[in-house]
Amino acid sequence: MNANERESLESLVKDVIGAAYEVGNSLGGGFLEKVYERAMLKELALRGWSVRQQVAHPITYKGAIVGEYFADLLVEDTIVIELKCAEHFAPEHVAQCINYLKASGLNLALLFNFKRSKVEWKRIVNNL
Predict the structure, then answer these.
(1) Over residues 44-50, mean pLDDT
(2) Could you please report the per-residue DSSP string of the chain?
(3) What is the mean pLDDT of the segment spanning 102-115?
């Protein structure tokens, strides 16, 4: 990745995080994940980003598809977004993001938690 691509990616990451704070500040904490997913979809689209919801990624084993993972959101076909409403992030949440990255062949996921009044987030990187 060259310097311009890295700068563009970092700009996108900052805007996605800003969108999550906008959604969290507007809705507050405690709704179902699906509510935040739809709100993030709307907010990211309003910001001009290409975003898809519940994107399927096949899981293959020895050349055969053995399952699918469904990422909550995929922004610009570059960043996997996983949304939670949990007391705290658990190792399983991070593992889920890593599995999404492996299945999709992408390198970056952002994990958001909307349970509390202040949005929490983590950046998950898959070093393929």
Answers:
(1) 97
(2) --HHHHHHHHHHHHHHHHHHHHHHHHH-S-S-HHHHHHHHHHHHHHTT--EEEEEEEEEEETTEEEEEEEEEEEETTTEEEEEE-SSS--HHHHHHHHHHHHHHT-SEEEEEE-SSSS-EEEEEE---
(3) 95
